[in-house]
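We modelled the chain as a single entity of 377 amino acids. Its sequence is:
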Amino acid sequence: MTIGTVSACCLALTAAPAFAGGDRGGGHGGRDPISVVAGGLDGPFQLAEGDGNSILVTQAAKGEVTRIDLRTGRAKPLATGVAGASGASIIDGRLAVVTGEAPGDEGSPADGAMVSARGPATGPTPPIYASLLTGRPGGQLTQFADILQFQLDNNVDGQDPNAPDSLSNPFAVVEDRTHRGFALVTDGGGNSVLRVDRKGTVSAFFVPDVVTSGVCLDRPNNDPEHAGCDPVPTGIANGPWGSVYVAGLSGEAPGEGRVYVLDAWSGKLRKTFTGFNSPTGVAVDNRGNLYVAELLCGAPASEKPTPDEIASTGRIVKVAPSGQRTYAQATLPNGLLFSGGKLYASTWSIAFFFGAAGAGQVIQVNDNAFGADPVGC
């Protein structure tokens, strides 16, 4: 799995990380289409519910899980020194964190700056990659489930394990609300969604098919039997009526991204939304509106994109129950969370690839931000 086909280069990108409100009660920032909840973040990836009036954000470039107070925008580390951290949730009072593949692995999100953790280390030592870690918020994290070992033992996507591709690259984690397990984890490298039970035992929950439509038709892959685009599950969210929503990157192929709607108990496919561009985050509100973060929508083809080109890359798609789609421009959006009647997104999420440490933000996206397509892909 790769996150980003744009090449890394050093650009003087700028963002505006001033706090502009984000109170769940609807006071501050409610009239602006987009308001900044918190800034100065390094590689903000996935978002999750926090305690009280807060949300969690995983700072992948910093190896940190951070609590953001939605009233003040203040950030408090809950776990630091967690190399390769990509997603986190609070489950049964425990902090659950998934880590990506080790540096040097094909397409590793733990590469380079993403393992340059700072501050006191509360994460595991030495780093434990491709795993689900758990612990008390603010305390030591330990390995709860070995996601890589499960893939090595089972090869759930059936592809050639010797191919130069990611074997296991966990991306996001949510609570298993059915109580049949502890957590659900997306493994982009293993092309699967996994269930982890309360003893740390891993099983396959959903294994999407290789995408073979559009530009993915007959695309070379790990072996001739799996020609097409790997589905690459990324973002995951619990939805209404016993559902789970999963975003699929579809090998970053333009227009071939997916959102899979699964039965929360069995993992069976209920519905598939198509036509997305590099989706990495997904959320659903209580009216049935679907939100999808398209990380690389409109990404420039140049190997040395300008700051303006980077700033205009990315959008969030809103899909109404009627099927109508509207769009909000957001720079390099990654994680989404609908909480307390509001939509939040992590943005400038891979700006560190371009030498822009600390450019990441968490924003609040209001209904009036959505309209005609602002970017085009």
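As a brief sanity check on the tokenised model: The two ends are 21 Å apart (CA to CA). The mean pLDDT is 87.
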